[in-house]
Design a protein that fits this description.
Length: about 325
């Protein structure tokens, strides 16, 4: 499992959340995506496409007019579709036969036939040089993706390159800044709806969703509030349980843990308040000024895979 990395800096609290496929080793999300695309191909009776190299970027298939190829164990793809999908602005230097791609502070330069690429002024040796085949310019897809901080996996069985782009979010109060990988979206302003599993996330400081499968929510309560300012952490947990209607009989596990040296309490419980019964994990901890609640409720699809794999918090 890819962990969440949480870093506390004073006075700014920075949350770095590195979530790639959340549930490796089972790799449930990747398998769900691959299963979807392979079924579509087989349903059309197109067996040849099912064996071709495919590229999936943030759960969506990338289309190429010329199919990707493998040269010396390196996957090469047409440069323009992958550059555009990764958000790179493209410039072509005809005189020097050089592709220039730029995204924010990243500048990539690749010259046809030259194994030396340049990223932000630094030379990098490529496993295979960019090349032109039948009028199409091909470039190493892993190098391009990783140059813009995307995560890349290769699924040998389905011959699929799986790319998850880097996304950055911030909490409503500006105290949290975090980075995630993949098809995450900010849902902090969505109220109760089918899309959020009948959960009210409008009061969350952080609320993100991965591919409609997994939610990561964080709430905060100021200790200046008279109703909680004198509470111990264990008492605050009871306060949260009461507010969320978590009955004692529904709690499967309750234990102490640590977040960056801070004492924390974690519970796993059966949530019957939603449209579908499921097992949720809830964690509380405190700073000098606030109590925090982290809630990561899996949907039924991922319940089994996530049951013993709630994100670990590590010191950076």
């Amino acid at each position: 499992m890819k962990p969440i990395l949480v870093a506390f800096f004073n006075p700014i609290l920075i949350l770095l959340v590195f979530l790639m496929l959340l549930i490796a080793p089972e790799n449930v999300k990747a398998n769900e995506i691959l299963f979807h695309f392979e079924n579509n191909l087989l349903a059309r009776g197109d067996k040849s496409e099912a064996t071709e190299i495919k590229v999936i970027l943030d759960a969506n298939l990338v289309s190429f007019s010329a199919p990707p190829v493998i040269t010396n164990s390196t996957t090469l793809v047409q440069f323009r579709p992958i550059f555009e999908r990764l958000g790179l602005q493209i410039r072509w230097d005809e005189q020097n036969q050089t592709i220039i791609g730029q995204k924010e502070e990243t500048k990539i330069q690749l010259q046809i036939g030259n194994p030396d690429a340049i990223v932000n002024g630094k030379a990098i040796v490529l496993p295979v040089a960019p090349t032109i085949v039948d009028g199409n310019t091909f470039v190493p897809i892993r190098f391009i993706s990783e140059s813009v901080d995307a995560k890349v996996d290769w699924d040998e069985k389905s011959r699929t390159v799986i790319i998850e782009s880097k996304r950055q979010f911030a909490s409503k109060d500006g105290k949290f800044h975090f980075t995630v990988y993949g098809l995450w979206e900010n849902i902090a302003d969505i109220t109760k709806s089918v899309d959020t599993g009948q959960m009210d996330v409008s009061g969350a400081q952080l609320a993100i969703r991965y591919f409609k499968y997994t939610l990561l929510l964080m709430y905060s309560d100021s200790k200046a509030d008279n109703s909680i300012k004198n509470l111990k952490l264990s008492e605050y947990l009871e306060h949260v349980k009461k507010g969320r209607n978590i009955a004692k009989k529904e709690i499967i596990e309750e234990k102490q843990t640590k977040i960056l040296g801070f004492d924390a309490l974690q519970i796993k419980y059966v949530n019957r308040n939603d449209w579908d019964k499921r097992i949720d994990t809830l964690l509380v901890f405190e700073s000098d000024s606030h109590f925090y609640t982290i809630l990561n409720p899996p949907t039924r699809i991922l319940m089994k895979a996530l049951a013993n794999n709630f994100k670990r918090f590590l010191i950076v």
